[in-house]
Please model this.
Amino acid sequence: MPLRVMVVDDALFMRNILKEIFVRAGYEVVAEAENGERARELYRETKPDLVTMDIVMPKKSGIEALQEIMADDPNACVVMVSALGQDSLVLEAVESGARDFIVKPFKEEKVLEIVKRIMQ
Amino acid sequence: MDMSQYRELFFSETREHLNNLNQLVVELEQQPGNRETIDTLFREAHSLKGMAATMGFNRTAQLSHHLEDLLDGFRKTGVVPAATVDYLLAGIDLLEGLLDDMTAKSAERSIDEFLQRSPSTEVVLVAEADVSSPPQVNGNDDQSLPLVAVEVEPSDLVEPLANIEEPDAFQVLVSLAEGTVMASARGILVLRELEKFGELMSSKPDLDALRNGAPCQQIQAWLRTSLTKDHIEEALRKITDVAQVRFIDDRRREEVSREDAAKTIRVRTELLDQVVNLVGELITQRYLLNSAAAGRNWDELRQALGQTSRLVDDLHHHALQARLLPLESITGRLPRIVRDLSRKSGKKVTLRLTGSDVGIDRVVLEALTDPLVHLVRNAVDHGIAEEGTVTVSARREKDLVLVEVADDGNGMDSERLRSQAVEKGLLTAQQAENLSDRDALMLVCQPGFSTAAEITETSGRGVGMDVVKSAVVNLGGRLDILSAPGEGSRFQLRLPLSIAIIKILLVRCAGHPLAIPITRIDRTLGLPTAEIERSGSERVFRLGEEVLSLVSLPQLLGLPEPAVGEITFVILTELQGRKIGLEVDCFIGQREAFVKNLGFPLNHLPGLCGATVEGDGRVVFIVDPQPLLENRPLLSSN
Model:
């Protein structure tokens, strides 16, 4: 069974890039969300194996969403996607249970490398 | 808590405690019933135990505790049995060995064998019976016996770093790739991964530091785990940005050299404050100078310059103070050495230390440590026949410190030294005869020259004296030997107070400015050229009763001879106790100079001991005439 992924980002552009990377790697993108609130709902509905989570988003930030998801499912695998310079937010996310983080701009290999390591 | 920041302080304090312990035990041997000494010894051992336990140096803590227990027993009886003095000293030796291990970041050596040799309780009980006042009648249960209990009370263990006795405890060094972004977050992930392997005992940086965004190029972690290193490495390497994983079996074997340990120095905060204040005043002064210069107000400028120079003098003085350590810091070991030597040789030797509080530059002191021990050993081995006193004294002499090792023993016979030099083929009979007594005594500094009929285990006179002399000369100092048969011997070391900032005489030599350390100059003379005479191939001049050789400094340096004027400028210097005149073009003046070390290949030129930068930015070489004169082609007497 292929790995089931949810992509969370307020920019369609970013979601599409990530979706393409995952599809090419043979994963199944089961959901995509454009804000934190939607991310939490969709997580409950789809129970993905992995979530990539943007940090700065409208309605609910990626960190809040992460914290709520972790509260629902302590085994959730969430990888943060962050821009350069958001060190303190990434620190907070890591503290809150994010498994890893990807820094924008990223390369396809790097993303897959991180995902593979986490899913082992 | 990260204890590594306290390492240096721990080492320097431990060294002090060990010095004290050594001295106190030797004192105790002379006055076995001195309660105050026993109490102090007990407290020293106790402090050492607490410190070592806090740092997680378990064997050191265990051994200190053992000695503390032993001493506690003596505190109760009020007397230290003579038989245990050697045991105590051996314990201190072992502690010194442990300190070496800790500084070198290697595992602490074993103390089991020593603990097994612990004097039997009977010895102590006999000692108890020895004291005139009856021993405590009650409460002499097993626990108060001084030889048991070696574990450290939990109360003394303030967060020990770890128990390194565990075979599965080791250190992991995880290096992150260059340019790793968000390194602290990455560091947290690495720590989190490490936690999965077993018990993560401590790390540097630790989690708190990383949370606060501490920079993180490398994570040093102490781990206790049953997993294999291969397994751990494989898992760590998968983490993004992890560039290298290394393992170090013992937590203390990091790549910090031992030398660094001795390079810390404690400075009184008061002194530090004064230095900072002075720097503050200098900053203010700079504005005054600026405004005076801008307004072309010469009076104000002159005044501000005067104040600046006073401030700089003050700052120099204070900065120098920070580098000065009391001679005590290296004489602390001497009582113990003398005690051991006199025991071994069966001689009765008393050691007197005076002026131990004289301050000497740290660098000078470091280089002086071994020579001083050599001299004291020589004095005990060869100076003193059966009974006598060795005196180590220090006092200030202007810009110099005079350190003297004197004994009231046999003294040296310059006549005998002469004949030995001839026997050994070091001198011809004629040369030996021409040698002054003072020069003859200096023969012991020739490599391989020894007057002792038999060479003892520790020293032979002559063995090491060449080392002593070169150490002193390398520091820009001078060694003199005063001795006569039946009058004892005195070895005088004249050393500069500081070797970073020295007083120099600026001279012109074949047209070039050159600096000569003031410590090398007895006086300067302006000599009517007509008064210079010839004696064989040498030029000589009269000074009072004496006839002195005159050597041209330009010639020594291979520079062209300047034209002869009516007045010849001469620097009087001393070579092996004999005055010699050095001719220069003229004197420019005295000043203080900050000595810059020379790089290769200039540092290999004899006589060139550094350079200093003049006010106008010109580099001026500092020349030490001593090696130049010693190596000059014809020094044969007359």
